[in-house]
Protein backbone atom coordinates (compact mmCIF):
# COMPACT_ATOMS: atom_id res chain seq x y z
CA UNK A 1 0.00 0.00 0.00
CA UNK A 2 1.12 3.50 -0.79
CA UNK A 3 2.36 5.49 2.18
CA UNK A 4 0.26 8.53 3.01
CA UNK A 5 0.79 11.57 5.24
CA UNK A 6 -1.84 10.28 7.63
CA UNK A 7 -5.58 9.83 7.79
CA UNK A 8 -7.88 12.83 8.21
CA UNK A 9 -11.46 12.16 9.27
CA UNK A 10 -13.79 14.67 7.60
CA UNK A 11 -17.21 14.81 9.22
CA UNK A 12 -19.98 16.61 7.34
CA UNK A 13 -22.40 17.60 10.10
CA UNK A 14 -26.00 16.35 10.29
CA UNK A 15 -27.87 14.39 7.59
CA UNK A 16 -29.15 15.31 4.15
CA UNK A 17 -32.14 17.36 5.31
CA UNK A 18 -30.50 18.56 8.53
CA UNK A 19 -31.17 22.18 9.51
CA UNK A 20 -33.14 23.63 6.59
CA UNK A 21 -32.78 27.37 6.15
CA UNK A 22 -36.09 29.05 6.79
CA UNK A 23 -35.64 31.84 4.22
CA UNK A 24 -33.38 30.34 1.57
CA UNK A 25 -35.12 27.85 -0.70
CA UNK A 26 -33.45 24.46 -0.85
CA UNK A 27 -30.80 25.13 1.77
CA UNK A 28 -30.01 22.31 4.17
CA UNK A 29 -26.97 22.61 6.40
CA UNK A 30 -26.44 18.86 6.20
CA UNK A 31 -26.36 18.87 2.39
CA UNK A 32 -24.06 21.91 2.07
CA UNK A 33 -21.68 20.44 4.68
CA UNK A 34 -21.62 17.25 2.65
CA UNK A 35 -20.72 19.12 -0.55
CA UNK A 36 -17.95 20.93 1.33
CA UNK A 37 -16.65 17.60 2.68
CA UNK A 38 -16.20 16.27 -0.87
CA UNK A 39 -14.20 19.34 -1.90
CA UNK A 40 -12.09 19.07 1.25
CA UNK A 41 -11.49 15.38 0.65
CA UNK A 42 -10.24 16.07 -2.88
CA UNK A 43 -7.95 18.88 -1.72
CA UNK A 44 -6.46 16.70 1.04
CA UNK A 45 -6.01 13.65 -1.17
CA UNK A 46 -4.22 15.86 -3.68
CA UNK A 47 -1.80 16.80 -0.87
CA UNK A 48 -1.03 13.18 0.01
CA UNK A 49 -3.44 12.60 2.90
CA UNK A 50 -5.81 9.69 3.22
CA UNK A 51 -9.37 10.80 3.98
CA UNK A 52 -12.15 9.00 5.78
CA UNK A 53 -15.57 10.61 5.32
CA UNK A 54 -18.07 9.89 8.09
CA UNK A 55 -20.77 10.33 5.42
CA UNK A 56 -19.90 8.49 2.22
CA UNK A 57 -23.32 9.38 0.80
CA UNK A 58 -25.32 12.56 1.32
CA UNK A 59 -28.11 10.43 2.82
CA UNK A 60 -25.81 8.95 5.51
CA UNK A 61 -26.41 10.27 9.01
CA UNK A 62 -24.36 8.20 11.46
CA UNK A 63 -24.68 8.85 15.17
CA UNK A 64 -22.41 11.42 16.77
CA UNK A 65 -20.28 9.14 18.96
CA UNK A 66 -19.49 6.93 15.98
CA UNK A 67 -18.42 9.90 13.84
CA UNK A 68 -15.74 10.89 16.36
CA UNK A 69 -14.88 7.41 17.58
CA UNK A 70 -13.88 6.19 14.14
CA UNK A 71 -10.95 8.67 14.23
CA UNK A 72 -9.13 6.84 17.01
CA UNK A 73 -10.16 3.46 15.68
CA UNK A 74 -8.44 3.99 12.34
CA UNK A 75 -5.50 5.96 13.78
CA UNK A 76 -6.43 9.31 12.22
CA UNK A 77 -4.11 12.27 12.82
CA UNK A 78 -6.97 14.76 12.73
CA UNK A 79 -10.76 14.94 13.03
CA UNK A 80 -12.62 17.88 11.51
CA UNK A 81 -16.37 18.37 11.69
CA UNK A 82 -17.96 20.75 9.16
CA UNK A 83 -20.94 22.87 10.16
CA UNK A 84 -22.70 26.17 9.68
CA UNK A 85 -24.27 28.10 12.49
CA UNK A 86 -27.58 29.56 13.63
CA UNK A 87 -28.19 31.97 16.51
CA UNK A 88 -30.18 31.06 19.60
CA UNK A 89 -33.88 31.26 18.75
CA UNK A 90 -34.69 33.67 21.59
CA UNK A 91 -32.85 36.67 20.09
CA UNK A 92 -34.79 39.45 18.27
CA UNK A 93 -35.61 38.69 14.60
CA UNK A 94 -33.48 41.53 13.17
CA UNK A 95 -30.44 40.28 15.12
CA UNK A 96 -31.22 36.72 14.13
CA UNK A 97 -30.75 37.51 10.44
CA UNK A 98 -27.83 39.90 10.99
CA UNK A 99 -25.68 37.51 13.03
CA UNK A 100 -22.80 36.17 10.97
CA UNK A 101 -19.21 35.01 11.27
CA UNK A 102 -16.92 32.03 11.65
CA UNK A 103 -15.98 30.21 14.84
CA UNK A 104 -13.90 27.10 15.43
CA UNK A 105 -14.06 24.75 18.40
CA UNK A 106 -11.15 22.55 19.43
CA UNK A 107 -10.67 19.75 21.89
CA UNK A 108 -9.73 20.49 25.50
CA UNK A 109 -7.54 17.38 25.47
CA UNK A 110 -4.59 19.38 24.05
CA UNK A 111 -5.21 23.09 24.38
CA UNK A 112 -1.72 24.23 23.43
CA UNK A 113 -1.40 21.89 20.48
CA UNK A 114 -4.86 22.54 19.11
CA UNK A 115 -5.25 26.31 19.52
CA UNK A 116 -2.84 27.39 16.74
CA UNK A 117 -4.43 24.96 14.29
CA UNK A 118 -7.93 26.13 15.23
CA UNK A 119 -6.83 29.76 14.79
CA UNK A 120 -5.33 29.05 11.37
CA UNK A 121 -8.44 27.17 10.22
CA UNK A 122 -10.69 29.94 11.48
CA UNK A 123 -8.62 32.66 9.78
CA UNK A 124 -8.54 30.67 6.54
CA UNK A 125 -12.33 30.40 6.37
CA UNK A 126 -12.80 34.07 7.28
CA UNK A 127 -10.34 34.97 4.51
CA UNK A 128 -12.55 33.28 1.94
CA UNK A 129 -15.96 34.25 3.33
CA UNK A 130 -14.99 37.82 4.27
CA UNK A 131 -17.18 37.60 7.33
CA UNK A 132 -16.89 38.30 11.06
CA UNK A 133 -14.37 36.59 13.32
CA UNK A 134 -16.17 34.98 16.26
CA UNK A 135 -12.96 33.46 17.50
CA UNK A 136 -11.63 30.04 18.45
CA UNK A 137 -13.37 28.35 21.33
CA UNK A 138 -13.50 25.39 23.61
CA UNK A 139 -16.61 24.12 25.35
CA UNK A 140 -16.23 21.83 28.31
CA UNK A 141 -18.66 19.12 29.26
CA UNK A 142 -20.95 20.13 32.14
CA UNK A 143 -20.52 16.76 33.84
CA UNK A 144 -16.76 16.48 33.35
CA UNK A 145 -14.78 19.67 32.65
CA UNK A 146 -11.80 17.60 31.46
CA UNK A 147 -13.91 16.49 28.51
CA UNK A 148 -15.42 18.27 25.53
CA UNK A 149 -19.09 19.28 25.42
CA UNK A 150 -19.68 18.52 21.75
CA UNK A 151 -20.08 14.81 21.25
CA UNK A 152 -18.19 14.56 17.97
CA UNK A 153 -15.16 16.35 19.45
CA UNK A 154 -15.40 14.40 22.72
CA UNK A 155 -15.66 11.03 21.02
CA UNK A 156 -12.77 11.80 18.66
CA UNK A 157 -10.50 12.99 21.47
CA UNK A 158 -11.49 10.13 23.76
CA UNK A 159 -10.82 7.62 20.99
CA UNK A 160 -7.22 8.87 20.86
CA UNK A 161 -7.44 11.57 18.18
CA UNK A 162 -6.90 14.76 20.22
CA UNK A 163 -6.55 16.93 17.10
CA UNK A 164 -10.31 17.32 17.00
CA UNK A 165 -12.02 20.42 15.57
CA UNK A 166 -15.46 21.68 14.67
CA UNK A 167 -15.69 24.61 12.25
CA UNK A 168 -18.84 26.73 12.03
CA UNK A 169 -18.62 28.11 8.48
CA UNK A 170 -20.67 31.24 9.01
CA UNK A 171 -24.40 31.40 9.74
CA UNK A 172 -26.86 29.73 7.39
CA UNK A 173 -29.45 32.11 8.87
CA UNK A 174 -27.58 35.13 7.44
CA UNK A 175 -28.13 36.01 3.75
CA UNK A 176 -24.47 36.85 2.96
CA UNK A 177 -22.94 33.85 4.73
CA UNK A 178 -25.50 31.38 3.43
CA UNK A 179 -25.18 32.63 -0.17
CA UNK A 180 -21.53 31.57 -0.04
CA UNK A 181 -22.40 28.23 1.53
CA UNK A 182 -24.76 27.61 -1.36
CA UNK A 183 -22.12 28.43 -3.96
CA UNK A 184 -19.96 25.59 -5.26
CA UNK A 185 -17.31 28.14 -6.13
CA UNK A 186 -17.08 29.33 -2.53
CA UNK A 187 -17.28 25.84 -1.05
CA UNK A 188 -14.33 24.85 -3.23
CA UNK A 189 -12.38 27.92 -2.10
CA UNK A 190 -13.11 27.21 1.57
CA UNK A 191 -11.98 23.61 1.16
CA UNK A 192 -8.75 24.70 -0.50
CA UNK A 193 -8.00 27.22 2.25
CA UNK A 194 -8.62 24.60 4.95
CA UNK A 195 -6.50 22.01 3.16
CA UNK A 196 -3.63 24.50 2.96
CA UNK A 197 -3.77 24.90 6.76
CA UNK A 198 -3.84 21.14 7.32
CA UNK A 199 -0.99 20.75 4.84
CA UNK A 200 1.07 23.17 6.95
CA UNK A 201 0.42 21.55 10.34
CA UNK A 202 0.47 17.82 9.53
ZN1 LIG B 1 -24.40 22.02 12.50
Write the topology of this structure.
Elements: E1 7-12, H1 29-46, E2 50-53, H2 64-73, E3 78-85, H3 93-98, E4 102-106, H4 111-129, E5 133-137, H5 151-158, E6 164-171, H6 175-181, H7 184-201
Parallel strand pairs: 1-2, 1-3, 3-6, 4-5
Antiparallel strand pairs: 4-6
Helix pairs in contact: 1-7, 2-5, 4-7
Explained architecture:
The protein is α/β, with parallel strands linked by helices and 202 residues long. The protein has a single domain (7-201), classed as Aminopeptidase. It has helices at 29-46, 64-73, 93-98, 111-129, 151-158, 175-181, 184-201; strands spanning 7-12, 50-53, 78-85, 102-106, 133-137, 164-171. Helix 1 packs across helix 7, helix 2 runs parallel beside helix 5 and helix 4 packs antiparallel against helix 7. The longest helix is centred in the middle third of the chain and has 19 residues, at 111-129. The structure holds zinc ion. Zinc ion (ZN) binds at residues 13-14, 29, 83.
Amino acid sequence: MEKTRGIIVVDAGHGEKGNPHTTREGFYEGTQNYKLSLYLRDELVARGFEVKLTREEVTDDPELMWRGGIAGEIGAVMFISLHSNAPATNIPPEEYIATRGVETYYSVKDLEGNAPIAKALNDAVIGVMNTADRGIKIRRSNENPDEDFYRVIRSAANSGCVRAFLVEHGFHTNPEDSAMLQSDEYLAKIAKAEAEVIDKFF
